[in-house]
């Protein structure tokens, strides 16, 4: 049997090591005993002590500190370090000028400060009113603006931030869906669309990427108010029309948004202010509201002419009153980026809608079916009243009944009356008035 050396793997004649044959003895030095478990515990204890020391320095309440996890603690510490680097204590404003909770509650959205690379530097506390998440919960998702935005908006956000960084002072706007709390998703059917409007500003001299931040205001895209707080909204106005969309009343805030006085619009047609390319969309909205198809069918994004001959984007929500004699429109002013987002969203089918389409009312047949039925009955009546063309008709069909004055009008009236009963009450048809201003 061949025996191999345990060190060099060479064949040996006996059970002996080549090291022993050469007379070289391996020094047997005792290895020190190390407890890996004890060392890991010591490192964890040291990390916990350091995290507790950092947590005690955070400018939040003691109750919030107790609820912080290690991940939330590190996220807040990094946020405070970035803020301290860009906003040194010697550049802080006086205590009387600090933003308080009362002032933040009056803003239409929350404040957001980003670094040149997109890192979060500051998020105002009223973010919970918009997204349902506190600053701590928002930072748990990530420390960049891309972590709190839906993935579909990342490319557009990068382009807008790069454009604003190349031209400091230029204001840019981008729209995207931000992640919200579970309660908000259940209430609003998903994440909320937020418009971020801001610009880059240099905080120090000389200006560099380390001292340049993006200051922005984040607002909800076209948040439609309820009936109770409609009068407190500054970015909308309301108008009342008769069924052909002629102005009968409008709020005074229309002067701020469109430049017209209230007296100038009363008696004018709503269609005379619309952009020619939006006339078909407005007519479809008008027909849907006149039929009483619901609030969703009466919402559209349209362009309206201002007094200075520029175009204003409006999200118009129309509804017919209970009496059916007038139409009330609530117009919400939009930026161009918000209007483009809403229009793209209207043409994009949602999975919920595709899976469970709303049932069509069975009592009222479609308008095209009514017209086809009426046309077929009128053709049949005309054929029955026309005289025979050739002699062959005499052998195939009996002689027509003698003509009595008034019989044709009675039959036609009876026929039209039956068709109108099926179609329901008459509706006001949309029309497009001639374009008043060029």
TrEMBL record:
CDD domains: PAS. InterPro entries: bHLH_dom (IPR011598), bHLH_NPAS4 (IPR056192), PAS (IPR000014), PAS-like_dom_sf (IPR035965), PAS_fold_3 (IPR013655). The keyword Cell membrane does not apply. GO terms for cellular component: nucleus. GO terms for molecular function: DNA-binding transcription factor activity, RNA polymerase II-specific; protein dimerization activity; RNA polymerase II transcription regulatory region sequence-specific DNA binding. It comes from the Eukaryota. Pfam families: bHLH_NPAS4 (PF23183), PAS_3 (PF08447). Residues 344-365 are annotated as: Disordered. NCBIfam families: sensory_box. This is Neuronal PAS domain-containing protein 4-like. It comes from Patagioenas fasciata monilis.
């Amino acid at each position: 049997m061949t025996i191999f050396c345990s060190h060099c793997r060479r064949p040996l004649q006996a059970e002996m090591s080549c090291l022993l044959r050469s007379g070289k003895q391996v020094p047997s030095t005792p290895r020190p005993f190390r407890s890996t478990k004890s060392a890991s515990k010591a490192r964890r204890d040291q990390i916990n002590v350091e995290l507790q020391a950092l947590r005690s320095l955070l400018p939040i309440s003691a109750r919030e500190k107790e609820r912080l996890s290690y991940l939330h603690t590190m996220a807040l510490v990094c946020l405070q370090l970035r803020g301290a680097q860009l906003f040194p204590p010697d550049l802080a404003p006086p205590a009387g000028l600090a933003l308080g909770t009362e002032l933040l509650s009056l803003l239409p959205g929350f404040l957001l400060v980003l670094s040149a690379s997109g890192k979060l530097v500051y998020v105002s506390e009223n973010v919970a009113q918009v997204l349902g998440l506190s600053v701590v919960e928002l930072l748990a998702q990530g420390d960049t603006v891309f972590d709190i935005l839906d993935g579909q908006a990342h490319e557009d956000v990068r382009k807008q931030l790069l454009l604003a960084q190349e031209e400091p002072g230029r204001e840019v706007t981008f729209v995207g869906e931000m992640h919200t709390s579970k309660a908000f998703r259940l209430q609003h059917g998903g994440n909320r669309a937020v418009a971020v409007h801001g610009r880059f500003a240099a905080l120090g001299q000389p200006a560099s990427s380390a001292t340049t931040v993006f200051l922005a205001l984040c607002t909800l895209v076209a948040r439609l108010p309820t009936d109770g707080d409609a009068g407190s909204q500054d970015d909308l106005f309301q108008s009342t029309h008769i069924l052909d969309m002629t102005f009968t009343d409008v709020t005074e805030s229309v002067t701020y948004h469109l430049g017209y006085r209230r007296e100038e619009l009363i008696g004018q047609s709503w269609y005379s202010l619309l952009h020619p390319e939006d006339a078909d969309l407005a007519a479809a909205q008008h027909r849907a509201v006149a039929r009483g198809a619901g609030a969703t069918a009466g919402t559209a994004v349209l362009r309206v002419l201002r007094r200075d001959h520029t175009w204003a984007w409006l999200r118009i929500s129309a509804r017919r009153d209970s009496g059916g004699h007038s139409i009330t429109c609530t117009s919400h002013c939009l930026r161009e980026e918000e209007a483009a987002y809403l229009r793209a969203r209207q043409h994009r089918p949602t999975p919920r809608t595709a899976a469970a389409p709303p049932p069509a009312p069975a009592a009222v047949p479609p308008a095209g079916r009514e017209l086809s039925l009426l046309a077929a009955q009128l053709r049949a009546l005309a054929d029955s009243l026309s005289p025979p063309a050739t002699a062959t008709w005499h052998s195939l069909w009996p002689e027509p009944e003698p003509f009595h004055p008034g019989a044709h009008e009675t039959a036609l009236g009876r026929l039209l009356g039956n068709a109108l009963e099926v179609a329901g009450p008459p509706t006001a048809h949309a029309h497009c008035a001639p374009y008043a201003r060029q």
